[in-house]
Design brief:
By secondary structure, the chain is α+β, with helices and mostly antiparallel strands. It contains 4 helices and 13 strands.
């Protein structure tokens, strides 16, 4: 009895190992371009031999953005009209003026385009923006951690092997031209880096009083100049 159970367990283990060996693994990298608050998040996926089985399929990156960073939906809509960047935001209503401590997380499904310079490679850039943070005690930068994205594939016209392409709980069309949602599948991949650190400039708490006084003086000065200009150059009609 025990020997039979052992043989069954070994056979299942060997079958799982053969399936894992038959399923090729991809790699995913992400990189932040530019400096300051306004950056471009570049995502690159290399499917390798898996790309041969994914011909005609859509490849996307499921990106989780923490509260310290966001995507401007109006900017994204403009880019999508010009076929520059294609993405789906969850939620689709975003307060772009909210600071980091009152904002919420954001999920982005970024559609990747084939890279002509590399067979089985896909890439896309997503414009992201850092939110304002609370003033810090002793550091002029705040760290925003970006986890490695999940790689998804969608083949509306063909079926993929469930052992290598497990279904993913994502409701989104395969492309911006599709009408209804399609079945997405997860891609087994190895991230080049588990996380990416975005450094956002922040103010120092000890400068708060100075900034408030300077802001008040600048406001009073500007109001005084406006009133003086109106009184000097304005033309007032007598009230009848």
């Amino acid at each position: 009895m025990a020997a039979g159970l052992l043989r069954t367990a070994l056979a299942a283990l060997l079958g799982a190992l053969r399936t894992q060996a038959a399923c090729h693994h991809g790699t995913v990298t992400q990189e932040l371009l530019k400096e300051g608050f306004h950056r471009d998040l570049l995502v690159k996926v290399e499917l390798g031999a898996m790309g041969e089985d994914a011909g005609g399929c859509a490849v996307a990156a499921r990106i989780h953005l923490p509260p310290g960073i966001y995507v401007d939906p109006y900017e994204l809509a403009s880019l999508q009209q010009h076929n520059v960047t294609k993405a789906v935001l969850v939620p689709d209503v975003i307060d772009v003026e909210a600071p980091e401590y009152s904002a919420t997380d954001l999920l982005v499904l970024l559609y990747l385009e084939p890279d002509p310079r590399c067979s089985g490679c896909f890439r896309a850039a997503l414009p992201v923006h850092g939110r304002y943070h609370r003033p810090a005690e002793d550091s002029e930068e705040a760290s925003v951690v970006l986890k490695s994205p999940k790689v998804l594939i969608c083949c509306c016209d063909s079926r993929l092997e469930a052992e290598c392409w497990p279904p993913a709980a994502v409701e989104a069309p395969c492309s911006d031209k599709a009408v209804g949602p399609c079945q997405w599948h997860s891609v087994t991949h190895t991230p080049m880096h588990e996380e990416l650190i975005l450094q956002v400039p922040v103010g120092l708490r000890q400068h708060s009083s100075f900034v408030c006084v300077l802001t008040l003086l600048a406001t009073v000065l500007c109001c005084s100049l406006i009133i003086a200009a109106v009184c000097r150059y304005g033309h007032f009609s007598p009230v009848t």
